Amino acid sequence: MAVTIKKAALIVGALGVLSFVFGVIAENKKPAAGTPIPGKDVVICKYPWDPSVPLGYLSVSFLLLSSFAGYRFLFYPYKGKSVPQSVLFQSTSFFAFFNVALFTGGLAATMLLWPTITEHLHLTHKVHHDLTTQCPTAKTGVLGGGAFLSLDASLFWLVALMLADNAREDHFDEVEKDAKAQALGAA
């Protein structure tokens, strides 16, 4: 199966949208707090069923897949022709969007993982020896912010893909002109 720029963009965009959707749903389904149940020298926290942890992990997974696909497709040889990475990185716009996509993806992963892992820990460690515990959950809003950053990261990968395609076409045009010039010079 030959991958084209359009297919690559569709894959990166779809994975980014899935990450965004799962992150937003995880944020919306997260309970505000658990119910403290006092015991003998302990407080046991009872939380309602919470799908935010698996949804958060799904969001992170799709973000990582989107970022991996975006990175991979940037340097993929299209139509059997590959371009040296140095050619791509000569473009200032490509270099900037590539680095912004990497940074945004890393920040999105951090903002998705932090509340997901925190929520997971709250749900698994329910017994507290501090009698004033109010049964907290992960910080509100961070998952949603990570979801939006995940969508942003996939959009930056898409822009980087477009810029890489432009640089690739320019490179092959120059190679073709040089080949024609050499053929005319030899004749």
Fraction of residues in helix = over 70%
- Beta strands, count: 3
Strand order of the largest sheet: 1-2-3
Mean pLDDT over the full residue set: 89
Distance between the termini: 40 Å
Helices, by number, come to 5
- Gyration radius from CA atoms, angstroms: 24 Å
Question: Structural class of the secondary structure composition?
Answer: mainly alpha
How many structural units, i.e. domains?
Answer: 1
Poorly predicted runs: none
- Taken from the alpha-carbon principal axes, the silhouette is rod-shaped
Order of helices and strands: HEEHHHEH
Largest sheet: 3 strands, antiparallel
Strand coverage percent: 5-15%
Characterise this structure.
It is a multi-pass membrane protein. InterPro entries: DEAL/Modifying_wall_lignin1/2, DESIGUAL. Keywords: Membrane, Signal, Transmembrane, Transmembrane helix. 70% of the residues lie in helices and 5% in strands. With 187 residues, it is mostly helical. The chain has one domain (5-182). Strands 1-2-3 form a three-stranded antiparallel β-sheet, with no helix packed on it. The longest helix is centred in the C-terminal third of the chain and has 45 residues, at 142-186. The radius of gyration is 24 Å and the shape is rod-shaped. The two termini are 40 Å apart. The mean pLDDT is 89.
